[in-house]
Amino acid sequence: MTQVHFTLKSEEIQSIIEYSVKDDVSKNILTTVFNQLMENQRTEYIQAKEYERTETDKSTKWLL
């Protein structure tokens, strides 16, 4: 499976959603899709699901 990597600033994403989409249903769909993508990236990066604690928790390593 081919993976595509791209980077967008949150301001760019908000602008795309706000100005490119004319109806609320489409805005809600795009917002949901982008939120899910960001949650998946977070989960992959920290290697733990939401509210899950692990020995290698990257989000709290700086506290050690």
From TrEMBL:
GO terms for molecular function: DNA binding; transposase activity. The keyword Signal does not apply. One of its GO terms (biological process) is DNA transposition. Keywords: DNA recombination, DNA-binding, Plasmid, Transposition. Belongs to the transposase mutator family. Required for the transposition of the insertion element. This is IS256, transposase.
